[in-house]
Structures are given as C-alpha cells and as structure tokens.
C-alpha cells in the first residue's frame, strides 16, 4: 500500500509580527505557488484592478400547481408589489480582484463571491482587503499559476473612487509626484522602492564586510563643510515675540515668492495636461482652482513685500546669540569633515544619512534633501579611495543583479531595456583613470563635435563633457582625478604642483558623475593658507583645525548621493521619482 503524501507546509512569513502571508512567499516560489494549492492562508493588500462575472441564475424545478385562489383588488396589488421586489433581487456574481501587497511585482488573483462582499465595495482600485481563503488552481487559464478563493473578509478599507488619484490606469510618473503618499501602490514605484532598499542594504553590507564602522554625523552644524555651498539656515528667531496663532502660514513655513512661482509653473503644466486629455473634468476643475489660489497668494506676498519697503526675511539682521544654539547653524551639506574626526580615532568609517543644499534650481539629478553615503579612511591616500569607490560600485551592482531579478525584469520591460546589460558591464569593465588635464586635452582634440560650453583649463567639466568622455571616447566608466584647486573644497590636499588638488570624480555611462572623492589636507600650514585664500572664517573651523594640530593622519574618502545611483540602476531620469517624498526647489507638499 503506497504511503500517503505529506501535506505541504506553508513556509514562514518574512516577519512573525504580521497576521498574513506576504504574497512574495506564495508567488515568489519557483512553481509560482502551485505547490501550495489546497492551503488555507490569510493575505492582505490593495486592489490594483478587478472585474465582475455574473453567475447564471439557477432555474428552480417546476412546482406543483397551486389551488386556484381568487384575490380581491387589494390583495392583487400587494401580490404584484411582492413579485416586483423578488424580481429586483441582485444577480449573484463573483468579483475577481488583482491584489498586491508591495512585496513583489506580480499580484494574486482573488475570487470573492457576492454573498461574501458587495462587488461595489471590494472592486474599486485602492480598496484595502484582508482575506482568508483557500489557494486553488486558476478557474481561467492565463498568466496566473494559482488563485485564492475567499472564504472570509477580515478587513475592508473602502475607497472614494471620485477622489482617489490612482483610479486611472497608467498615470505618468510626473503626475504621481503630487500624490507621493499613494504612488508606492503603483507597480513601477514599488519596484523602484525595492531596488532602492536593496542598494541601501548593499551599501551597508559592503562597508561592514570590509571592516568599516558605521557612525552618525550631525544634521545640524555650525560648519559649512564645503566652504561655498548654499545652506539652509536653522533658527528659532523668526517666531520670537509672536504667539503661534499670530504667525501667518507663509511666515511660519518660510515661503518665498520665487518658490511659489516655481510651483505655479508645475501647476500650469498639470492644468495643460488635464486639458489635453479631457478625461477627468473634476480633476481639471480642481487643478484650475488650485492654480488660481496660488496666483492670488503670489499677489498677496508681493503686496506685503512692497508694504514693508523692501525689508524681507533675507535682509533682516539677527542676533544669533539669542537663538536656540546661541550661534548661526545650518542643515549639513556634507558629513566628510565630521567623519574625518571619527576616522582619526576609529580607522575606517562611513555614514549614511540626509544632506541638504538650498540651491534654487531645477535638476533631474539632485534634490534639496538627499541621502548621502560619506566614507573616510585613516592612513589612506587618493589611490586607496579610488580603489574603494571602484570596488563599491561593482559590489552594489552585482548585489542588485542577484537579489532584484524580478524587479529588474519589470524595469527591463517597462522602463529601460538596457538596464541589466548596463549593470553587468559596470561589474566587468575596468574603470579608466585620467587626470583632469588629460581629459581637457582629449576633449579639445575631438573633431566634428561642437560643445555648448567652452573647454578650457580651470573650468569644471559639464555633464555634456563627462558624457562624451564615457559614452563616446572610452565607452566605459571613467575616473577623472587631480582637479584645479579653485574647483574643489578647501579641505582637499594640495598637490606638489601647487595648482591642483588630490580629488577624483567617478563618471558612469548614461549617468555622469556619481561619486566625488578626495584626500584630505593633513598639513596645518597648508590648510590654514587655503582657508585664508578662500576668505573662510577661521573661528568656524577651529575644531577641524585641531585635527591637524594634534595627531594628524593622512585620510581619504568619498561621497555618493544614493538617489542618482537608483537612477542608474532603474533607467529613470529624474530623482524626484526614486525617493518616497521628494524635496526640491518650490516643492515640499507633505
């Protein structure tokens, strides 16, 4: 007698703290979940799409003829109304839902009988469901290997279809920026977020595997880390002497006319887009009203500024000794200086956190708030930092190729057909290393190509110049080193020629400069001279100068903004689409 086959056990979920099975556990199996057919599971997620199938009404068997009864006029009218009510009973149906929980690309097909839940409640896109049911073979052959037959509805989060922004199909990424709190529910943004997550953990894995110590650097600082950057001022003095209810919304938020004008451009584009499609009149009306209110706000602010005779927040004089920190402070631009102090005690260190720049420009590759990896190594020179940056990029590209196959396949299909080839090429290629002077010389010799910006020594390479080097000349990643001292921060080491400094930029094909690094100046006299040359306030940097006064060591490192790396790994072209909540000039909606 053949032994009975042991039942298939449901594998553990990612976390014991959730009362559901993540869909990746079911759909991420090699068999697509077929081996789990017959299992009872609880799944939760959000409806991405749906359809309804009407059941054929069952014809009851003919009943025996009833005895003839004669009704009066009143009784006949009552019987007619009862028959009408019976005839209006809803026809049984099945709601077929495509449910996603954000753990993987594919969605699970769920069948919900109308006796269990009203179709108009469970079918709208965005509806949140927690359902218990049985996994079974698909009732209709298609792309699904398994489906769930619902037995219990444990939770139902309803949606107002008229106001839910994702009710439309295939919304462009640009329009999703206005509803950043919902856009992770789209397949594209969810895939990007999972790749973003993998790059974050790959970053930690690389440095931890190589003996680096992760340390935190301050977000609020009294030091301008680069010496010439646009910074966000941190102060409590704007509200001094005023009660909370006396501060207008625009004063409290620090809104400027320039920022609102920038938002008007975005809102005008949105109105024009909705007008062209003419598919959602309610959304168009709301956008037009929003634009009108924003224009009114600009007029009010301009009138207020005139009434103050030109006195604005920017021109006021503050006594920072009465401020919270008793001195002028900013949101940090870079963590390299603070990190160097840790490297001069702990060895090789890295930091991963938010950095801020108050640059009033629209850029597809930078944000006002960005997450940056800062690295600093003790007893290390420029070549060592270049080697580390090279190995780091190869490591993270390999990690996501191995760990994000499903998401990269989706990106390959929907966004960039060359993404996997590009990542593989980064891993296998050797990075070309050329000096800044050599790069200028090579670009000057290019025949038949006219660059928009003039190529000359002492001027920064533009994105156009960098792209031509990696895409047309070398056709692989390039590291440009030894830049003119005028182009780089004060703290980088001066080379023996007295004209260039020990710096490098890692430039990738189709991306541009992704990593910027340097060797720090450890000689006190040289560092002091550089600060004096640039007109920096020495008092602000006394703590940093102490590193050179007491036990200085040669250190080198680099900085990497995570968002452009996500662009490189996904093929998208705007960093606003690869972060959960983008902060850029004129935009901070939530």
Automatic annotation (TrEMBL):
SUPFAM superfamilies the record matches: Class II aaRS and biotin synthetases
Picking any one GO biological process from the record gives:
asparaginyl-tRNA aminoacylation
Pfam families from the UniProt entry: tRNA-synt_2 (PF00152)
Going by the UniProt record, its keywords in alphabetical order are: Aminoacyl-tRNA synthetase, ATP-binding, Ligase, Nucleotide-binding, Protein biosynthesis
* Molecular function GO terms recorded: asparagine-tRNA ligase activity; ATP binding
E.C. designation(s): 6.1.1.22
Q: Which NCBIfam families does the UniProt record give?
A: asnS, PRK03932.1
Q: What family does this chain come from, according to its entry?
A: Belongs to the class-II aminoacyl-tRNA synthetase family.
Q: Which PANTHER family would you find in this protein's record?
A: ASPARAGINE--TRNA LIGASE, CYTOPLASMIC 2, ASPARTYL/LYSYL-TRNA SYNTHETASE
Report what the protein is called. Answer: asparagine--tRNA ligase
> What is the scientific name of the source organism?
Nicotiana tabacum
Q: Source gene?
A: LOC107827690
